[in-house]
Amino acid sequence: MDYSIKDIFERLRTSYLIQIELMKQYPKILDFAKLSARTKSDEINAALEEREKRRKTYEIFDMIDTTKFRADLNIEKCKQFILWANIGFTEEILDDIRKSKYQNLDYSHIVEILDDYFAELRKVFYEPAYR
Question: Kindly report the CA angle at 107 between 79 and 118, in degrees rounded to 5?
């Protein structure tokens, strides 16, 4: 992941492109995502869930350019909304991919949908000059 990219939506887009490249190279990687890391220990499960939550939230949102956000918004809450939106979006894409045949995936269409999605998010969160 290239953390020198400071625009949150460009950083997320880059993250998706890396994942798409992995899917192209290793189409069965999605099958591994179905595996559960749950154990019989509630304490270990809770620690794993907390670790995963921290990893997802903080790495991608570290050191982003917040000057592009609308001045009337709470940046930390915006980050959470963007995270939730991306989790939902990712699940939708993965569901569509799992329903199709791996070798017939139109990756350029996925990127097109991504770009449209991020354009809409920019309209919601960014000042007009940065949309």
Answer: 25
Name the β-bridge partners of 58: none
Digit-coded pLDDT (tens) for 71-85? 999 999 999 999 889
Tokens of 52: 């995963």
Alpha carbon 90 to its chain centroid, in Å, reads: 6
Is pTM beyond 0.90 here?
no
* Sign of the four-CA dihedral 88, 94, 95, 97: positive
* 4-14 per-position pLDDT tens digit: 999 999 999 99
| Residue 130 main-chain phi, psi, to 5 deg | -110, 10
Do the beta carbons of residue 71 and residue 126 sit within 8 Å?
A: no
